[in-house]
Amino acid sequence: MKKAVKRLGVLLIASAMLVSLEACGAPAAQTNGEASSSSSQSQASSDGGQSSVTSSSSSSSSQTESKAESSVTNESSNASSGGAASQLTPDNINDTVMKDVSDTIDALKTEFDALTAEITTYDQYVSNKTKVESFYAKILDSTKQLCIKMRERAIEYAETVMASNEDNDDKNDDFDEIYDSIYEDAGDEIYDEIYDGILQDMYDAFYDGILSDAFDDDNLDYSEIYDEKSEAYDIWSDTHSDVYDEKSDMCSDVYDFRSDLSTQMYRDKPEKAEKVIEDFKADVEKLKGN
């Protein structure tokens, strides 16, 4: 009986130990699971963050490349549309200076057409005389600025020639374009289209047109018309003479500039030719009031 009770006590103790071990093991397994789950979540979070960084980096890189491509495209577009100024060469100097001249002449012709469309009678002339006088002033100023531009074109071209790899003889030959394109072609166009063109048209339209015709109107005062016509002639004549002087002075300056350059290059003294350019630059700046 005592043995049976003792055996039962041993069994109860063993059973209690087994329950205790199972009770201790369960939390351990749960902790491992939680750790595994936490590790997985952490890895997922890390992977997600890395993915986000990669995506952000990729997006930033794509935007940078897009901006770079856009910049290149814009630069290419600007270049193709004339955004970058091209150097004057023997091949393009004539076209360039003649465009300068034609742009000025076209603008003056447009304003002349508008003025003569607005003023068609003697009374309109008297009422708008200040507009006529202002246009004469504009003709003179436009001619002056154009002639300064022609001098600057001569300098620009000379600098390009001097910077080339040609020998002195070839450079000297290239300087002939200063004479041909600016002195002759541009000078002749200014004379024909402004001095002997627009100004002659102004003379015909107002002095020899509206004002002369006014003498035929018996309702107008003869002495008043005479005074208006005399005044109109004076301003026309002054502008006519001043425009000629501007054109003549420009041609003379450009001729001397080209001649001085050729002399120095003929003597194989390019350093003195450079000095000729610098001196002419200074002269042009004075003409500009600088």
Describe the protein's architecture and organization:
This protein is mostly helical and 290 residues long. The protein has helices spanning 2-80, 93-118, 122-127, 129-163, 168-174, 176-214, 222-266, 270-287. The radius of gyration is 46 Å and the shape is elongated. The N and C termini lie far apart (135 Å). The relative contact order is 0.08. The model is unreliable at 1-84 (pLDDT under 50).
List the helices and strands and how they pair.
Elements: H1 2-80, H2 93-118, H3 122-127, H4 129-163, H5 168-174, H6 176-214, H7 222-266, H8 270-287
Keywords:
290 residues, mainly alpha, 8 helices, disordered N terminus
Low-confidence stretches: 1-84
Written as H for each helix and E for each strand, in order along the chain, the element string is HHHHHHHH
Distance N to C terminus: 135 Å
As for the number of domains, it is: 2
Overall mean pLDDT score? 80
The radius of gyration over CA amounts to: 46 Å
Tell me the strand percentage band.
under 5%
Globally, the shape reads elongated
Number of helices, where a helix is a run of at least 4 consecutive DSSP H or I residues: 8
Count the E strands: 0
Structural class: mainly alpha
Fraction of helical residues = over 70%
